[in-house]
Amino acid sequence: MIPVAAGRAFLAFDHGRGLADLELAIRDRLDDPATRPGQRNELAALHRHLREWRRLGRFRLSTRSIILVEHNSEPGRRRSR
Q1: What's the mean per-residue pLDDT of the chain?
Q2: Which listed residue, of 11, 35, 47, 78, carries a Cα 20 to 30 Å from 71's Cα?
Q3: Per-residue three-class SS string for 4-59
Q4: Most confident stretch, 14-18, 61-65, 75-79
Q5: Strand-pair partners of 2
Q6: Which domain holds residue 31?
Q7: What is the pLDDT of residues 22-38, one digit of tens each?
Q8: pLDDT band for position 72 (50/70/90)?
Q9: How far apart are CA 19 and CA 12, in angstroms?
Q10: By three-state DSSP, how is residue 3 classified?
Q11: How far is CA 45 from the centre of its chain?
Q12: Residue 74 DSSP symbol
């Protein structure tokens, strides 16, 4: 989460992914016994925020497009995604 203004934050996902995917990935990490206690606390706090955003309706979630410009290490070749 990157704060961009008062009451606004930016989350970036791969194409076709969204908030539900993030929430599921966090649940998976919380269920993983290899997750360290410090990580577990941070993930649990993030999961609570996501659940609140989804359930309470106090936030409007809108999807936008972004363009990621990356240096191409092989000039002349286009990267496919």
Answers
A1: 85
A2: 11
A3: EECCEEECCCCCCCCHHHHHHHHHHHHHCCCCCHHHHHHHHHHHHHHHHHHHHCCC
A4: 14-18
A5: 10
A6: 1-81
A7: 999 999 999 999 999 99
A8: confident
A9: 10
A10: strand
A11: 14
A12: S
Q: Can you tell me the distance from the alpha carbon of 24 to that of 38, in angstroms, rounded to the nearest whole number?
A: 19
**Residues β-bridged to residue 10:** 2
| CA 62, chain centre distance (Å) | 14
Rounded to the nearest 10 degrees, how much is the dihedral formed by the CA atoms of 25, 27, 33, 36?
Answer: 80
> For residue 19, which of 1, 3, 33, 31 has the smallest C-alpha distance?
1
Q: How confident is the model at residue 2 (pLDDT cuts 50, 70, 90)?
A: confident
Tokens of 15: 């194409």
Pairwise CA distance, residues 31 & 27, whole Å: 6
Q: Structurally, how many domains does the chain consist of?
A: 1
Q: What are phi and psi of 54, to 5 degrees?
A: -75, -40
